[in-house]
Amino acid sequence: VPDHVSLWGLRLAICQTFQQFANLRPTRVLRGTTSPLRNCPPGSLDGLIVRENTEGEYAGQGGRTHIGTPWEVATEVAIFSRQGVERLMRFAFECAKGRPRKKITVVTKSNAQRHGLVLWDEVAAEVAKDFPNVEMDKMLVDAMTVRMTLHPETLDTVVATNLHADVLSDLAAALAGSIGIAPTSNLDPTRKGPSMFEPIHGSAWDIAGKGIANPVATFWTAAEMVRWLGYGDAADELMQSVENVCEKGITTRDLGGSASTREVTDAVCREIDSVLGGKYQSIIQ
Q1: Which residues are bridge partners to 187 per DSSP?
Q2: Annotated catalytic sites, by residue?
Q3: Could you give the CA distance from residue 83 to residue 117 in angstroms, rounded to a whole number?
Q4: If DSSP codes are grouped into helix, strand and coil, which group holds residue 104?
Q5: Is the terminal CB of the chain with fewer CB neighbours within 10 Å at N or C?
Q6: Is 106 left (phi over 0), alpha (psi -120 to 50) or beta?
Q7: What is the DSSP letter of 11?
Q8: In tens digits, what is the pLDDT along the chain, a chain of 285 residues?
Q9: What is the DSSP string of 155-174?
Q10: Going edge to edge, which strands form the sheet with 22-28?
C-alpha cells in the first residue's frame, strides 16, 4: 500500500475526524543513553515539541490535473485558520506555563510563506499577551535546525506547524539518541473526543520481524497515555523502569547495544515488576 494511501486512510483520518489538533512530542536524553552531540549529557536536551495536527500543510487540500501529460499540474494547499492556530497556540503556551522554565519558541517561515504563516505569527503574538509569565521567542524553521543541533539547551517548549514540527521532532529524536525512543500523543485537549498515542517512528516495515526494533518508544508512549489519563506518578515510574534498564546497558543496536526487541522488552517488564510490584493493580483491573 503506498504511504500516502495508508497515512490518509488511517492516521490522518483519525486525527482530523476526532479533532486531535495537538500533537505532543517530548524529547530528552534518557539515562543510560548518549546523544550523538558532543557535551550533551542527560538534562541538557529536555524539551517538548507541540505540533499542529489537523490542518496546515497536511490539510489535504489540492489536487492533480492533466495526469500523465507534459503539462500535468499538482497543487498542495496549506490551510491556516485563525481558530485552528489560536487553539493550538493556547494549548502550547499552557504547556510552557506548566514546565519549570516557562519558555516557548514559536517556529515559523513567515518571511517566505507570507499569508498563512504571517497569520500564524500574529496569533502567536496575540496569545502571548495572555501569558505574561511565559518567555517567548520566534525562529525561522531553517535556523531552528541549527539551534537544535548547536544549542539544544536553549530550548524548552517548541510550537510549530504540522510539517515543520513533523521534521523537527524527528531531528530532536535523533539528537536524543534514536528515533526508536520517541513517543507522540495526538490529543483533543477539550477531551470531547478520544486521543491517540503512538511511537513517532511508525510501522518500520523494513525491519519488521527481525527482532531489532527498539521498544522504548512504545513504553514511553504508554507512559504518556497513562499521564493523559491522570496517573502522572505511574507514568514517571514507568519511565524510571525504562531508564534503569538502559543504564544496565540493555539496549537495541540503534542505541549502541546488542539486545533484541524481546530482550529489552522482557528486561523492562522485570524492572516494572521490581519497581512497582502490585502498586497499580487496582488501576489495571
Answers
A1: 22
A2: 58, 109, 142, 166, 170
A3: 14
A4: strand
A5: C
A6: beta
A7: I
A8: 777 787 778 888 999 999 999 999 999 999 999 999 888 877 778 999 999 999 999 999 999 999 999 999 999 999 999 999 999 999 999 999 999 999 999 999 999 999 999 999 999 999 999 999 999 999 999 999 999 999 999 999 999 999 999 999 999 999 999 999 999 999 999 999 999 999 987 777 788 888 899 999 999 999 999 999 999 999 999 999 999 999 999 999 999 999 999 999 999 999 998 877 767 555 555
A9: --EEEE-HHHHHHHHHHHHH
A10: 135-140, 103-108, 157-160, 46-52, 22-28, 183-187, 196-199
What predicted TM-score, i.e. pTM, was given to this entire model?
Answer: 0.92
Q: Which residues contact 221 (CB under 8 A, 6 or more apart)?
A: 183, 184, 185, 197, 198, 199
- Count of positions (residues) in the chain: 285
Tell me how far CA of residue 154 lies from CA of 107, 148, 150, 184, in angstroms: 14, 8, 10, 22
224 CB-side CA count, 13 A = 25
- Distance CA(139)–CA(104), nearest Å, equals 11
